[in-house]
Write a structure and sequence with these properties.
The first copy, chain A, is α/β, with parallel strands linked by helices and 607 residues long. Chain A has 21 helices and 22 strands. The longest helix of chain A has 17 residues.
């Protein structure tokens, strides 16, 4: 049974063809960012699924440096490999070809059917080579826009891409703000750092230094095979992580268990790179490699617009940013810069740093998590609303591994819901699976955003349609703008914080009002337990032993009131409660309340 | 004023000369690990300082891949640059040429005076080129041993080196265990990982693919200039960190503030690499580059001996291992592997991961910390004892920034000192500046080792002659062998631990007895404060507010006793104390004791 036949059973788009369209010609040429223009641009592309009657289900996939239009399915029945993102694109998959009309085109300057330096210059009748004009990511996207219009699509449901593809996604969201509902920028950056430029430069150097390069006019000849292979090897190292290379190859030797004491390739990783380099030479054009890496090096949104904030000022799309923990080419930090700038502009952005050992290539390999995030995000963009509470199977955490009597009794959620003015904006610090925000969005019509680090919780929130950003509560709240939310909520998290003051300081800066709930350590039961038993208290609201509790701050109502007074924090409301009674406590709250909700704000702030 | 003249005022060795010695000849040839032999080896070397009458003050410095024998001083009065480690080696410096006789030689196979592939093969009268035998780190060290003997030195006080030099240090300690007192292996590894081999392989590929290489017989011709430059560029990227490249270059352009839209080098980082590549071609031989990188790739102590533990089994030297936080070529993890294997063999090892943004090159750039660690370590090796307590200026922490009433009243130290049997071995978890271990070493004659993460504290311990390893207390105690210490001490640290159980579990595994001291949270003062005031207690022994205390575990004597019972931990001794009285408390200890010392062990263990 061929792979193609097997694939038909597993939700594959099946046999597909690459199509071509001439999008720019002498009558309407493409003006490039460099000032030069191209009077003939043909584009190779593939489509899967059907454009619906409303023409609002189109998803554009943007490929990376060495990818092409062939995203999914097979070109021939005996093809050994499907398209490059077959795990993600297909019927029933994350980018579901039964729901969406999926489009992918080979980029401008590529060598897989779209006009590039290996194409013939109509004016000379010879291949362009280095006379092809240098182009940018903006130019690539302008050509895609023309293709999308050509296919009858005015507004895209989604634009999705990783690496160089992610740059195109950002460019779409910036350049055509009203033409993109959901923008998913994966493992990408708004500008390469010095190290990435350095790797690109060395690769280009290797091509240019190869005697076979002939100033780029190698068509018909051998071409700069060794130089291109070396460039590919360098690139390939940067796509993998140290860990994944170690797991894949370690120090194993290819053909022997003893050293050869010569200069042939003998470590497995050497022969692997030889193979990668050689097979790349067979499928890729050296000039295209020069042009495309240069386009990546040139991309710099902050320089172009004055700042990243200004670059994103007009974005209207819902944005998802995804990075990978071991990606050292386009690092999580670089994705965070995108997220920070979006947040500062009040944009709807969701961010997840996916935990993966696979380095930059993880966006191609971590199909499960990547698919879950893309699928959930596109589904919510298509449906345009969050599901009702009754539709959600498990609104509360039911995982027996982490379940405690306490997490089942979140009476503070009801109270917090009552405290929040309908239609306001809410930032939930430590938002978990999104239960509280889901309630607030459905019942109080708030604009909500969660902060969470647990990957599964983030996926769950995305599937509920709740925006969430993967930030460290204790160190990364600086990402949010001053007074950017009506409410900032910290529910039953205060007592677990390593750094209390900085977190509360940030909350007061970000929120017009802050809602903070925590178990009261001065409740009479733990007090008596301590006084008479001489042991650190264990109770329903403090259900852990001293040595394994996540609660590392023992704070009482009195402590918190005193803290607020000292820090100049205004207490707007104070709701001491007994958990089981779900009742507020009026008399002697510090003694009689099991838990408490404070509404506070920076004294003197305008609300 | 020339740099040379200026340098004379700043503790420089001044004008120096590279000397030469023929160490192997036809009568006594060098047998290589590959099985081949060399019947003529000449070595280029420099020496500074004087060998003393006892001939026990010689320090061998081993250079890295592209270094040479010229470590310090100037060759000519108008030299623009001094030797490559002039910051570390010189009169009054870390490797003090007024005290030590310092030797450094160009490695076998190098191109700076020692016999290598660019030397003339006496049999053919032509340069060796690729007919030079492939050699290994072992071979390099065999030649150094011959040189050291030639200079009249039987036993080295120290062997010091970074990167490839560090491999030589390890090799010295293994191969000549009774000839090295102190071995300092810096920014090195016992074997390259797949990623490092990959970078080396691509560099070699670039050289071999260059038309100018001519099978290695390029003497007289141009040679593989472009290939060697590319290899150097790749290497150079791996020596810097992403952060240091970013700080140094960012995305700045060399000659313009606008893109050129062509393929000339225009980013500063590109022109810098061009320069690095070009200047390297002028000073280094391509064949040497092939041979030396191959020697590094081949180095693999675990494979050679069966395991790292076996490799280090015979080591007698005091070992210092140093790594740098941002070094991604030879990572801190790789240094940790050395340390772990040494510890498991009961070797005397000190380890510091120096915090630095400079990547692998940090061993050349972080002269302050590196110098402090090398200087302190060599000084103690030369003196052979720790200083007396009265000699030490500040035996107790006197830093006002961290000083608290509590740290001034460490009465538990006196008690712990009494508990420890003279001459036993002690592991101090969280050893700080080494005060307790210093007391125990001087007064009780123990063999001590500290675990600490604070860099300044580690430097202080090294200067006191106290071995210390830079490990995370909560996650990295697995490095120590079962029952490898008579005592494991955790003094006033329990209450700050995020993970209590795993740490105590490890302590019980490592130590025959464990000594654990902590403030008793059930002491009557905090109890009353809590009972009556309803606030989390603040007292002399618990001097912090709830929100900024490092004490995140509130543990009482009763809690700890109960914990021990549940975990099957045997309590051998229990010393409740009142801090000011320095007296043991007999009656109602959980109520009346301010702090407590427990001596515990795993029940049933043989002591």
């Amino acid at each position: 049974m061929s792979d193609y036949v097997k694939s038909k059973q597993a939700g594959c788009v099946g046999l597909v063809k690459t199509k071509k369209a001439v999008l720019f010609s002498e009558s309407e040429s493409l003006l490039l960012e460099s000032g030069r223009s191209l009077c003939f641009v043909e584009v190779a592309y593939e489509t899967y699924g059907k454009l619906n009657a409303e023409r609002d289900n189109a998803v554009l996939v943007c490929h990376a440096l060495t990818g092409d239009a062939h995203v999914a399915g097979y070109h021939h029945e005996d093809d050994r490999k499907p398209g490059w993102w077959n795990d993600i694109v297909g019927p029933g998959k994350a980018i579901d070809t039964e729901k969406y009309f999926v489009v992918c085109s080979n980029v401008l300057g590529g060598c897989k059917g779209t006009t590039g330096p290996s194409s013939v210059n109509p004016e000379t009748g010879k291949p362009w080579g280095l006379t092809f004009p240098v182009f940018t990511i903006e130019d690539i996207v302008k050509v895609q826009k023309q293709l999308v219009e050509h296919l009858g699509v005015d507004c895209l449901l989604g634009v999705v891409g990783g690496s160089l593809g992610g740059m195109q996604v950002l460019e779409w969201a910036i350049r055509y703000p009203d033409k993109v509902k959901a923008a998913l920028a994966i493992a990408t950056t708004t500008r390469l750092g010095a190290q990435s430029i350095a790797f690109d430069a060395v690769g280009r150097n290797a091509i240019l230094a190869d005697g076979g390069f002939q100033g780029g006019e190698y068509a018909g000849g051998e071409g700069p095979q060794r130089g291109l292979a070396i460039a590919r090897m360098i690139g390939h190292i940067t796509y993998l992580s140290e860990e994944s290379m170690h797991l894949k190859f370690g120090r194993s030797l290819r053909h022997a268990d003893q050293y050869r004491y010569d200069f042939d390739s003998e470590f497995s990783v050497e022969t692997y790179l030889d193979y990668q380099g050689q097979s790349f030479v067979d499928r890729f054009d050296a000039n295209s490699y020069l042009y495309l890496t240069k386009a990546m090096d040139y991309y710099d949104l902050a320089a172009r617009f004055g700042s990243l904030e200004k670059a994103f000022a007009e974005v209207q799309a819902d944005v998802m940013v995804m990075s990978f923990s071991s990606d050292w080419l386009f690092t999580p930090r670089q994705s965070r810069d995108i997220v920070d700038a979006m947040l500062s502009q009040g944009k709807r952005v969701t961010y997840c740093e996916v935990d993966s050992p696979y380095g930059h290539d993880a966006f191609l390999l971590e199909a499960n998590v990547v698919g879950r995030l893309i699928g959930g995000f596109l589904k919510r963009a298509a449906e345009g609303s969050v599901p009702g509470i009754e539709e959600v199977h498990q609104p509360y955490r039911q995982d027996p591994a982490v379940d405690t009597p306490w997490t089942k009794m979140r009476v503070d959620y009801d109270r917090i819901e009552e405290l929040i003015v309908p239609g306001s904006s809410v930032l939930d610090i430590g938002s978990g699976r999104g239960e509280l925000l889901h309630r607030l969005i459905v019942r109080r019509g708030v604009v909500g955003l969660g902060v969470e680090v647990n990957q599964d919780d983030i996926c769950n929130s995305v599937e509920l349609g709740i925006p969430v950003v993967d930030l460290d509560v204790e160190t990364e709240l600086g990402s949010f703008g001053d007074g950017s939310f009506d409410y900032v909520v910290l529910s039953h998290t205060l007592q677990t914080l390593g750094r209390v003051e900085p977190v509360i300081e940030q909350m007061l800066r970000i929120g017009k009002k802050c809602i903070i709930s925590f178990p009261n350590f001065a409740y009479w039961r733990p007090r008596l337990q301590m006084m008479l038993g001489g042991r650190t208290p264990v109770s329903a609201s403090l259900p852990f032993e001293w040595h394994d509790t996540p609660n590392i701050r023992f704070v009482t109502i009195s402590d918190f009131v005193r803290f607020c007074r000292r820090q100049g924090i205004e207490i707007l409301q104070q709701i001491p409660m007994v958990t089981r009674d779900r009742a507020a406590v009026r008399l002697w709250p510090n003694l009689r309340a099991e838990e408490v909700i404070f509404v506070v704000s920076r004294a003197g702030i305008e609300r």
